[in-house]
Amino acid sequence: MWDVLVVGGGNAALCAAITAREAGASVVLLEHAPRAFRGGNSRHTRNLRAMHDAPAGVLTDVYGEAEYWDDLLRVTGGATDEHLARMTIRASADAPAWMSAHGVNFQPSLTGTLNLGRTNAFFLGGGKALVNAYFAAAERLGVTILYDTEVTDLELDNGAVRAVNTVSRGFPLTLQARSVVAASGGFQANIGWLREYWGEAADNFIIRGTPFAQGTVLRDLLGHGVQQVGDPAQCHAVAIDARAPKFDGGIVTRLDCVPFSIVVDRAAWRFYDEGEDVWPKRYAIWGRLVAQRQGQIAYAILDAKAAKLFMPSVFPAIRAGSIAELAGKLGLDPAALETTVSRYNASVRPGNFDSAALDDCRTEGLDPPKTHWARTIDTPPFIGYPLRPGITFTYLGVKVTERAQVLMRNGRPVANLWASGEIMAGNILGKGYLAGFGMAIGTVFGRIAGAEAARHAGN
């Protein structure tokens, strides 16, 4: 009988396991993936959004609670639990120090479209280094880690988890624990489940992260009468290079060129304002926008003036000497794309271009408009990138209390079950996204869940 059993192997799970072990509990962590692919989506991350009232470490200037809350409110459109959100924001202030104490190193933020030095702390070596540091810390503390172990069912009876059924290295294994922490993520890698809400369009989605995020634990808990939260049809989807692999392409497949380009669909028509807001607050809407176009594909079109304003794709840019030639290489109708570019160029009203701020370069008389960073596309070579929806995580999850305890549909908490990370993030992040906020939720609620699970086991 373990004191604490943690389901999952990403940031939230590791924070819970480490915290519970430091509180004196015996801890076993079950990671679905083999050791070489451990870490869930966390190994593809690179930063955490943290509140701070003064410059601290790699964080510059000030990023207080009010501004953080306002940023979250705008991207979610109010689809958030304010109490849990503010609690997360305040607790994020202590996260970098705790992370450093457990082996995570930080670096100054990168420049470019995601210049976040004032709001986000970047991990030296990225998410893989963070995951490795946490696993090393967990091992030093004496956490038992079982890799290649998929949880298939939590035996929930009379308001408590009685046993956890798994398949470990191909063999059935049942474990028991006084406390259980579910930190196994969403169902974004389960194309069949995505198809229930998106139809055949889901077949064209690319999954940016781990293929092990099948949602088995989430679906099992909901089937046992746990209260759900979040829209099952919502997902964090960004525009990524259409040439990316089906799974595990990671952050390098994302395309940051949208604010400095025009984006067209298969008919070569624009369909949304590419310059609506600064990229950290708007990049997460573009996956859904592309998902709604025919064939779930779109194309970013730009010219030589914009070529060095963003992080390039891991795949080579598609270049041409003319718009018609570029259209041919992208499989678009040359005349249609030439018409779209000509109309756009004619509508551009020059201003003071500033790639790092909401400038006054805009279009006039164009529908949809481009409200910032609008410059004519007229300088060869002309550049194109194909875009597809890249799914990071889903918003459907389980309802939790401020102590991370999981609630049943009747409002009563499960006596010995807590949740952290993507499986409960829908309580706070109902839609939209802020760069680095998922890691903040996982870190804060991972630590809460670990501490509460250990306390319960000790009692």
From TrEMBL:
This is FAD-dependent tricarballylate dehydrogenase TcuA. Keywords: FAD, Flavoprotein, Oxidoreductase. Pfam families: FAD_binding_2. Its cofactor is FAD. It comes from Acidiphilium iwatense. Residues 3-427 form the FAD-dependent oxidoreductase 2 FAD-binding domain. InterPro entries: CobZ (IPR012831), FAD-dep_OxRdtase_2_FAD-bd (IPR003953), FAD-oxidoreductase_2 (IPR050315), FAD/NAD-bd_sf (IPR036188), Succ_DH/fumarate_Rdtase_cat_sf (IPR027477). Coiled coil: none annotated.
